[in-house]
Design a protein that fits this description.
Keywords: DNA-binding, Transcription, Transcription regulation. The protein is an alpha+beta fold and 341 residues long. Helix content is 39%, strand content 19%. A 5-stranded antiparallel beta sheet has the order 6-5-9-8-7. Strands 2-1-4-3 form a 4-stranded antiparallel beta sheet, sandwiched between helices. Helix 1 (4-15) runs antiparallel to helix 2, helix 2 (22-36) runs antiparallel to helix 7 and helix 10 (270-280) crosses helix 12 (296-310).
């Protein structure tokens, strides 16, 4: 039966999933585990969504070479495959505790002989961290005590694996940024890939090659966020490009793309939106006419229409409204004018 302090530790680990700094929260979670389970060392690993490589998020007690081996070499062992297919985290002591347990025996392998035992550890347990059927990381615990991780200890660790997975998942913070709506489609986009986020569908605007030009332009700025309007498949979308919170597993060039369907505000037409965007960059009517292959008279008419629709008293007031509310459909070369820094 679990003790009071074990239950309290599990509860505190669950509460740590609300912390924005996942590295610090992960370290705190390992220290909470040390209060509930016998351990002399522990490491929490996150899995890079692009490469599949494991990277340490937090660790206590392991020598540097052992931590590195647990992140890089462990996944090449048969024992790793044993770990990821079991719901109850397997332990070294399971060799003698449960002789019928399937899978290779860790004590008989090279990793234990060359990495774990020389570091002074006699027992260990490893849990696979999953979120929505995705493997997002691993947790390793080790102790100098032999046969320390019995079935009860392993069940306790299993009970906190969902919370540890929430901490280890590099996509968790990106999938639910605090300043974006909880609904809508969202993905992380890098220079070489689109990374789908848990619980989010891929934005439809990513089917437009021009949007990828905007993403490249945004990544080249030092800005934090830009809001715009964009059509895709016959629907207009409110689109937000922003930099995700940096951390293990988040590529340095990643851009978070979030979209929600919308109607063009104030009943603006697509052409009026283009004119308003160019006006917001400071272009004159003549320059706008040349860029859009229109006559200056037509541009003047568009400006009059958008002033009437928005209720703005002047061109300057209309462009200020456009920047404030993200009433923009910029070309890549215009994006830097509107990025929030």
């Amino acid at each position: 039966m679990l003790s009071h302090h074990q239950i309290a530790a599990a509860t505190r680990i669950g509460m740590l999933t609300r912390e924005p700094d996942t590295a610090s929260a992960g370290a705190a979670a390992l220290h909470e585990l040390a209060r509930a389970l016998p351990l002399d060392a522990a490491t929490l690993l996150t899995r890079d969504p692009l490469t599949g490589a494991h990277v340490q998020l937090a660790g206590i007690g392991y020598p540097a070479d052992t931590s590195q081996a647990l992140a890089v070499e462990f996944v090449t062992t048969p024992w790793y495959r044993n770990v990821v297919r079991q719901e109850l985290p397997p332990s070294i002591s399971a060799d003698t505790e449960d002789p019928e347990e399937c899978g290779p025996r860790f004590r008989h392998g090279w990793f234990y002989a060359e990495r774990v035992r020389p570091a002074g550890f006699r027992d260990g347990v490893t849990g696979a961290l999953r979120r929505r059927d995705r493997l997002v990381g691993l947790v390793h615990l080790s102790t100098q005590r032999p046969d320390a991780y019995d079935t009860e200890a392993r069940r306790l660790l299993a009970s906190v694996l969902p919370a540890l997975a929430a901490l280890a998942d590099p996509m968790a913070a990106a999938a639910a940024p605090r300043d974006l709506p909880a609904d809508g489609r969202a993905s992380l986009v890098t220079s070489g890939a689109v990374i789908d986020l848990p619980g989010r569908d891929r934005p439809r605007v990513l089917c437009d090659e021009e949007v990828h030009g905007l993403l490249g332009a945004f990544a080249g700025t030092a800005g934090h966020r830009v809001r715009l309007l964009w059509p895709a498949a016959g629907t207009w979308y409110r689109v937000v490009l922003r930099r995700p919170r940096p951390g293990p597993g988040i590529p340095a060039d990643a851009v978070l793309v979030h979209e929600t369907p919308t109607e063009p505000p104030y009943g603006l037409s697509p052409r009026e939106l283009e004119v308003l965007t160019r006006a917001a960059t400071g272009e004159t009517n003549r320059a706008i006419a040349q860029a859009l292959f229109l006559s200056p008279r037509t541009v003047h008419s568009h400006v009059e229409h958008l002033l009437r629709k928005t209720g703005a008293a002047s061109r300057a007031e209309a462009t200020a409204l456009a920047v404030r509310d993200g009433l923009l459909r910029p070309a890549p070369e215009q994006l830097a004018f509107f990025v929030e820094r």
